[in-house]
Amino acid sequence: MSPNASSRTANGRRVVFFDLDDTLYDHRTASRAALRALRDDYPSLRRRPVEWLFSRYAQALETGHRRLMAGRLTPANARVLRMRFLFRGAGEELSAREATHRMELYRTVYQAHERSIPGSAALLRSLRRRHRVGILSNNRTREQRGKLARIGLAPLIDLLVTSEMTGWAKPDRRIFTYALRAAGVEARGAVMVGDSWAADIRGAIDAGMPAVWFNRDGAPLPEPLPVAAIARWTPAAEAARTIEGRFPGPNSS
Ligand SMILES: [Mg+2]
Questions:
Q1: pLDDT tens digits, residue range 52-69?
Q2: What is the CATH number of domain 3-26+116-244?
Q3: For the chain, give me the number of helices (H) and strands (E)?
Q4: Which of 75, 174, 182, 212 has its CA 20 to 30 A from that of 165?
Q5: Any bridge partners for residue 193, and if so which?
Q6: CB pairs under 8 A, 24+ apart, for 58-66?
Q7: Residue 229: helix, strand or coil by DSSP?
Q8: CA dihedral defined by 75, 79, 85, 91, rounded to 10 degrees?
């Protein structure tokens, strides 16, 4: 590597931070497939639409996640509680043993559907020609590393920051400050890209970072903030231009 090449990979390069779940990692598709499998096997769920199951399960994930991150629940217990909460909503009470059994089906189908959001790898490759790429995620470090490895994106990530590492979760400004410091850039030298308006977009704006909302459903902007919205990562060059356009300075569009 020539001295020039190595200077270009030093901290002078700007950083694009991505949320992971449902921004690069397609949790939603895998979760829906797993819930469909449960519905096929268990009559109590049969009258419920998949969207009802999905939002009930997401609610359980959210509640359990907070207790998990606070160290008040083990991952295995969190899974049992999620399954019991899901079935309770459909009028069936599960023993811990039965919940564990049904969770195994959920996990098997979920893992079989694990994938990145289409176009993610090409987008990251395109961005990394000019910038560094980081992950900024509210989750456990080991779990997020595992997901990145399994969906093939790990070699495309320069930096990983999780709520578990820092003790703060998005939208807390302190996790953004931590990430910027870890990357060695100012807020204006970074862009935050994510699907959660409350955590990723509000959080970034409050921390002084430009933001891009990954809006797969084409929903209206919840509030009039100066952010770009994008519905898909293909074509990669176009998505990269939208993201890079948020950097202040000569290359903004
Ligand atoms: Mg997300």
A1: 999 999 999 988 888 888
A2: 3.40.50.1000
A3: 11, 6
A4: 212
A5: 18, 212
A6: 58/31, 59/85, 60/85, 60/86, 65/138, 65/139
A7: strand
A8: -160
Site of tokens 């998505």: 239
Q: For residue 84, what are its two tokens?
A: 């019991």
Rounded to the nearest whole angstrom, what is the distance from the C-alpha of residue 99 to the centroid of ligand 1? 26
- For residue 3, give the amino acid letter: P
What tens digit of pLDDT does each residue of 32-54 get? 999 999 999 999 999 999 999 99
Ligand 1 centre and the CA of 43: distance in Å? 31
- For 176-217, give the DSSP string: HHHHHHHHT--GGGEEEEES-IIIIIHHHHHTT--EEEE-TT
Ligand 1 center–CA 37 separation, angstroms: 24
User: pTM higher than 0.85 for the full model?
Assistant: yes
User: 26 C-alpha vs ligand 1 centroid, how far in Å?
Assistant: 9
Q: How far is the CA of 27 from the centre of ligand 1 (A)?
A: 9
